[in-house]
Design brief:
It is a single chain. It is built from 14 helices and 5 strands. Strand 3 and strand 4 form a beta hairpin. It has 2 domains: 91 residues; 158 residues. The N and C termini lie far apart (68 Å).
């Protein structure tokens, strides 16, 4: 007579093995030495495998619902059938191993990018759209969950660029996500949010975006290359001098980068993209 512990792990293997209940039952028999007929009785309605399939299919559908909840706009763009095909393939290839379902869909954008048809052109907007939209939606979700400027203590907005000049150390809040996209998705996203209709796919175009949160409200903003570069460098631990050296080029020397940066600081603070570093980090 198998122990309760063995039966529980046997059923868990049947339910969660990628490929369905039959594959799970075969794997469970290898691992635990127990066959489905020994633990699940047949009745007039269903045999053991059909009864086990109810649990295995229900487990997969629960994960699918979580993935669809994380990517609602992507599901609208792709349609239920196509989204369902890729979502189930993703779940079979990437079974859940985390105690939180928040982690379940983290790899979905990369999964879609890896499974692009080989004959598809790199700038094909119709294929780029699901990949880039998935990146956008995941970043939006992460911004909602991560720490924002609401958690920064004693943070007063600088009233003018001249006041900002007295602060030499700035940090980017953890909630900020910087995206280097191949499609201009902010207008597309806004149109999707305002209507049930799916807008026309935008033309391929490089687009630098910051997704951030201020007063617990998430928003997305377009960035210039130097704004993106400065925020990215600061996030990597650079000081202002190092960051401006990274961003400078022939058309925009370091002095101009720093001047434009100083003028932009009050705006960036108001958007939730910057906070002054705590005093102990400045010393």
């Amino acid at each position: 007579m198998p122990s309760l512990h063995d039966v529980q792990h046997w059923l868990l293997t049947v339910m969660t093995t990628p490929g369905g209940a039959e594959r799970g039952a075969a794997l469970a028999r290898q691992h635990h030495g127990l066959a489905a007929g020994e633990l699940v009785h047949a009745n007039a309605v269903a045999d053991p495998m059909r009864r086990l399939g109810v649990y295995a299919d229900g487990y997969l559908m629960r994960l699918y619902d979580c993935l669809a909840a994380d990517y609602p706009m992507l599901q609208r763009v792709m349609g239920d059938d196509v989204f369902g095909f890729f979502a189930r393939a993703y779940l079979w290839e990437n079974p859940s191993h985390s105690p939180t379902l928040y982690d379940l869909g983290a790899g979905f954008p990369a999964f879609l990018a890896r499974h692009r048809p080989p004959q598809t052109a790199a700038d094909d907007g119709m294929w780029l759209l699901p990949v880039e939209l998935a990146r956008f939606e995941r970043a939006w979700l992460e911004t909602m969950r991560d720490h924002g400027p609401e958690h920064a203590h004693n943070q007063a907005l600088t009233a003018s660029p001249w006041a900002a000049m007295n602060v030499t150390h700035w940090t980017v809040p953890p909630c900020v996500r910087l995206l280097d996209l191949k499609l201009p998705l902010i207008p597309f996203w806004q149109a999707m949010a305002a209507s049930d209709e799916v807008p026309q796919c935008p033309q391929s175009e490089n687009s630098l975006v910051a997704i951030t949160r201020m007063h617990y409200r998430v928003s997305a903003y377009p960035l210039t290359y130097w704004q993106y570069g400065m925020l990215d460098a600061l996030r990597q631990g650079c000081d202002l001098h190092q960051a401006s050296r990274r961003v400078e080029n022939q058309d925009m020397p370091q002095e101009r980068v720093l001047a434009d940066w100083t003028l932009w600081i009050p705006v960036a603070q108001e958007l939730g993209l910057l906070v002054a570093a705590p005093q102990h980090q400045r010393d």
